[in-house]
Amino acid sequence: MCQECSKATISRRGLFAGGLALTIAASSSSLAFAQAPDGRPNSAEEALMRLKEGNARYIANAPINADHSVGRINRSMGQQPFAAVVTCADSRVVPELIFDQGPGDLFVIRVAGNFINEDGLASLEFAAAVLGIRAILVLGHTSCGAVDATIKSIKDNTLPPGHLPRLVNAIRPAVYDVMASNPDNLLAAATAKNAQLNASVAATSGPILAEFHEKGTITSAAAIYDIATGKVAFL
């Protein structure tokens, strides 16, 4: 790449980064979203209720978001999700189906073990300050392989190969937290605790998310998706 082209690329990146930072700063300081567009929840409580109602439709096999071509042109102009879902990368967990929502309704962050790292936190900050989400849901699920691998790692006092220790170390606090009480189902208890701990991370991480939560603009919750039944149990 020529020197002038390289300078131009760096300049454009700098402008983008600066513009994004200003947008987030302005949104965070005012803690005021633009008026919600038609059909989008106006409050954090309404956002969670919409997720619960959507899951009820999913369980009943009565979806109302079956035609994904509807609104395609409008979506090309920008996104307006009403909630963010931090969920596992497990291929059986599909938030848009589980909550019967259409494209553009949910801002989904996926990582094996549904924990919030620095990248996930930054994504949630963007969703809150720029996109105007009303709720953050950390969604664990039954038979989670990442949580199970963490339990086995602790019991065997070994670490898995490659980069997998990063997953284990992220989930480890939840496992240790519940092991002391010797639950009948350690996997289920650790999965629930992991979702709850990360929902707390979303609610208390400053400066952006903590401020939105303190003002009641956004709420964070934890839930467990039962793969066998389709039901989401809010914790």
Walkthrough of the structure:
This protein folds into 2 domains: 1-29; 42-64 and 77-234, Carbonic anhydrase (Beta-carbonic Anhydrase, Chain A). Helix 1 (3-30) packs across helix 5, helix 6 packs across helix 7 (164-179) and helix 7 (164-179) crosses helix 8. The protein is globular. Helix 4 links the parallel strand 1 and strand 2 (106-110). Strands 2-1-3-4-5 form a 5-stranded mixed sheet, sandwiched between helices. It has helices at 3-30, 44-59, 72-75, 95-98, 118-131, 145-156, 164-179, 186-204, 208-214, and strands spanning 83-87, 106-110, 135-141, 219-225, 232-234. The chain is 51% helix and 11% strand. With 235 residues, the protein is of the alpha/beta class. It has 9 helices and 5 strands. This is carbonic anhydrase. Its EC number is 4.2.1.1. Belongs to the beta-class carbonic anhydrase family.
Write the layout of secondary structure elements.
Elements: H1 3-30, H2 44-59, H3 72-75, E1 83-87, H4 95-98, E2 106-110, H5 118-131, E3 135-141, H6 145-156, H7 164-179, H8 186-204, H9 208-214, E4 219-225, E5 232-234
Parallel strand pairs: 1-2, 1-3, 3-4
Antiparallel strand pairs: 4-5
CATH superfamily of the largest domain: Carbonic anhydrase
Assigned CATH class of the largest domain:
Alpha Beta
Number of domains: 2
How much beta, percentage-wise? 5-15%
Largest sheet: 5 strands, mixed
What is the CATH architecture assignment of the largest domain? 3-Layer(aba) Sandwich
Q: What is the count of helical runs?
A: 9
Q: Termini distance? A: 53 Å
Order of helices and strands: HHHEHEHEHHHHEE
For the secondary structure, the number of strands is 5
Multimerization state? single chain
Mind telling me the C-alpha Rg? Answer: 19 Å
CATH topology category name of the largest domain? Beta-carbonic Anhydrase, Chain A
Q: Residue ranges: pLDDT <50 for 5 or more in a row? A: 4-19, 22-35
How do the strands line up in the largest sheet? Answer: 2-1-3-4-5
Mean pLDDT: 87
Which percent bin holds the helix content? 40-55%
